[in-house]
Design brief:
Elements lengths: L3 E8 L5 H11 L17 H6 L6 E7 L8 E7 L7 H8 L4 E7 L6 H12 L3 E7 L8 H12 L7 E2 L8 H11 L12 E10 L3 E10 L2 E2 L3 E4 L4 E4 L2 E5 L3 E4 L1 E2 L4 E5 L13 E4 L18 E7 L8 H17 L5 E7 L3 E8 L2 H14 L4 E3 L6 E5 L4 E4 L11 E16 L3 H10 L3 E7 L4 E9 H15 L5 E11 L2 E8 L2 E2 L5 E4 H18 L7 E7 L2 E8 L15 H21 L6 H6 L5
Parallel strand pairs: 1-3, 1-4, 4-5, 5-6
Antiparallel strand pairs: 2-3, 7-8, 7-16, 8-15, 9-14, 10-11, 10-16, 12-13, 12-15, 17-19, 17-20, 18-19, 21-22, 21-23, 23-25, 23-26, 24-25, 27-28, 27-29, 27-30, 30-31
Bound molecules: guanosine-5'-diphosphate and magnesium ion.
Length: 604
């Protein structure tokens, strides 16, 4: 145990976490330089393409420091950086004794990074502040270091300056991990307690969990038990990732590795659960288990319509695809629904908009499905006149107004870090989204930390993009859910050519209904292609039209090819065209392109 160091990297997206991980793999000889691909740990195709880390990946490195008598085992867990995945970060922290706090010298510390760093400190981890990208001309290493040290109350001398790209300073990082991060503690002789901090499904092996052995040891083939779930299985294999799997006879106290179970679903091997041995089990599970609940819901339908034509085959494909994705993503939930306009589909729950976007893209790309994803919504709590309550995740299912006593919406507490010069714009943005301010404090290097509260619906819509716009990209955001609060909320429906499009319905605050309605209509006008007839677009609340737009008919001059003289011929053609238009109008239905459903998100 003396020779083990368990650490993770806390960083904002793009600040260089994966690049630093690459350098560490290289310097420790874990991966030969010729086998090196960029961002080696980001294995999923989508992760590479978008340059973001979605699933966390532990890797074991052996490093023999100069003049040392033996190698040191360094376990690194790469973590995702986006707000939607913060639960994955928090569980990583509890598997480590130390964290590198990596900050881009051209960007400064971001809100989410700060939130994670504070959490790491509270959990007793040693923080090593590292300023990255010092090779860039725009880098301000000294100022960034001062700000980081001050904000987190760390000595300025602790800061290490590196370029993950060139490798400068990386050896110093390795040294700091050895010298500053404490070796794991734990009771080797005690009954096994191992923390599950990730799990994935493998079609051949069953569920494979990433674990941190906290007490005792875990031999391969042992009968194991998950303490929270109360389920038993066998440890078919145990081992470590280097980054290829390396089978071990056992995992000892303080080690991080993988555990191959015979479980068929990751729902049985929940992150945060504790593994113990069936023979001589531990008495208490490890603390901190929490279930994540989805915060954004949307309908997923097929472009072809679930039931028409050859659609049922595609519906089966969609169901299978969601099932496959859910096998590896415990935070994705879904259930079948039937929509009049959109056919058979699913109502799915996500952690946030990025999560939704990633799932949508994976369905389209990996399973080749043309999809309609309806306007995302947050969950609402409906208190009914008969005393009951219900949680609403689909605006289309809002009960009749006469049955509703009150609608409550979720609120979030947020922390924003921005430049002092952008404070006004940020305050304006928050106020415009019905937010309230709790506190504003000035940090070093002209940075302000703003604490505020905001309805979650307004946060998930487009707040993040708006914030980026208002702060020239410098503003960053962390949030946490607080409670449900009653508000005058109504359902806003949309009609296209006189027909309701249920997938476009949203629940909005009365005071925001007008603005929202107009914005959506403008977007629809942009997106829906004109037809031979005029298309009416209407926004409706409780049957009352509150805003309308028209899409003018496409002009097609049927007489263009004729010379001026032949008037009767011209008139005949125009007559014919008129009839055609009337017929089309009667047959009527206008196709709403799939982009429209996503576009209604935007508020401005
Ligand atoms: P992550 O999102 O935190 O994993 O960040 P990445 O490691 O993917 O890096 C984001 C971008 O910054 C990539 O284009 C990297 O090549 C670049 N980058 C990372 N570290 C450095 C550095 O030290 N100097 C420079 N110039 N670029 C870097
Ligand atoms: Mg990365």
């Amino acid at each position: 145990m003396r020779n083990i160091r368990n650490f993770c990297i806390i960083a904002h997206i793009d600040h260089g976490k994966s690049t630093l991980a690459d350098r560490l793999l290289e310097r420790t000889g874990t991966v030969e330089k010729r086998d090196m691909q960029e961002q080696l740990l980001d294995s999923m195709e989508l992760e590479r393409e978008r340059g973001i880390t979605i699933k966390l990946q532990p890797v074991t490195m052996q490093w023999t420091p100069p003049k040392a008598d033996g190698p040191l085992t360094m376990n690194l867990i790469d973590t995702p950086g986006h707000v939607d995945f913060s639960y994955e970060v928090s569980r990583t922290l509890s598997a480590c004794e130390g964290a590198l706090l990596l900050v881009d010298a051209t960007q400064g510390i971001q809100a989410q990074t700060l939130a994670h760093a504070v959490q790491a400190k509270e959990q007793g981890l040693t923080l090593i502040p590292v300023i990255n990208k010092i090779d860039l001309p725009a880098a301000e290493p000294e100022d960034t270091a001062k700000a980081v040290a001050k904000t987190l109350e760390l000595p300025e001398d602790d800061v290490i300056f590196i370029s993950a790209k060139t490798g400068e300073g990386v050896d110093e990082v390795l040294g700091a991990i050895r010298d500053r991060v404490p070796a794991p503690e734990g009771a080797p002789g005690a009954p096994l307690r191992a923390l599950v901090f990730d799990s994935r499904y493998d079609p051949y092996q069953g569920v494979v969990a990433s674990i941190r052995v906290v007490d005792g040891s875990l031999p391969a083939r042992a009968k194991i038990k998950l303490m929270v779930a109360g389920k038993s299985a066998e440890a078919n294999d145990v081992g470590v990732l280097r980054p290829q799997p390396e089978i071990r006879k056992r995992l000892e106290t303080g080690e991080i590795g993988y555990l191959v179970t015979g479980f068929k679903s990751i729902a049985e091997v929940r992150v945060g659960d504790t593994v113990t041995q069936a023979a001589g089990p531990a008495k208490e599970p490890l603390p901190g288990y929490r279930e994540v609940s989805p915060m954004v819901f949307a309908g997923i339908f097929l472009e072809s319509g679930g039931s028409s034509g050859g659609g049922s085959g595609d519906y089966g494909k969609l169901r299978e695809a969601l099932g496959k994705l859910a096998l590896n993503d415990a935070s994705l939930s879904y259930e079948p629904v039937q929509s009049q306009a959109l056919g058979q589909g699913f109502r799915a729950g996500f952690l946030g908009l990025l999560h939704l976007d990633i799932i949508r893209e994976r369905l389209a790309r990996e399973f080749n499905l043309g999809l309609v994803v309806t306007a995302p919504t947050v969950p609402y709590e409906i208190r009914l006149t008969d005393g009951g309550t219900l949680t609403l995740t689909d605006p289309a299912e809002l009960p009749d107004v006469t049955r509703i006593e009150e609608i409550a919406e979720p609120w979030a507490e947020l922390e924003i870090i921005c430049r002092s010069q952008d404070l006004g714009a940020v305050q304006q943005l928050i106020a415009a989204r019905r937010g309230t301010f709790a506190d504003t404090r000035f940090a070093a290097a002209e940075r302000v930390i703003v604490q505020a509260e905001l309805p979650l619906a307004n946060l998930v819509a487009d707040f993040y993009d708006q914030l980026k716009g208002a702060t020239a990209g410098y503003g960053s955001l962390a949030y946490e859910l607080t409670d449900f609060r009653a508000a005058p909320l109504v359902r806003l429906d949309f009609l296209v050519a006189g027909e309701a499009v249920p997938g476009l319905s949203v629940i909005v605050h009365q005071g925001e209904a007008d603005r929202r309605a107009r914005a959506v209509l403008a977007k629809l006008k942009e997106i829906i292609p004109p037809a031979m007839f005029q298309i009416a677009l209407q926004a409706v609340i409780g049957g009352k039209v509150i805003a309308r737009e028209n899409i003018s008919p496409r002009k097609k001059d049927v007489t263009a090819g004729l010379y001026g003289g032949d008037v009767t011929r011209k008139r005949k053609l125009q007559e014919k065209q008129k009839k055609g238009k009337a017929r089309m109008k009667a047959e009527g239905s206008v196709r709403v392109p799939p982009e429209a459903f996503v576009a209604v998100l935007g508020q401005d």
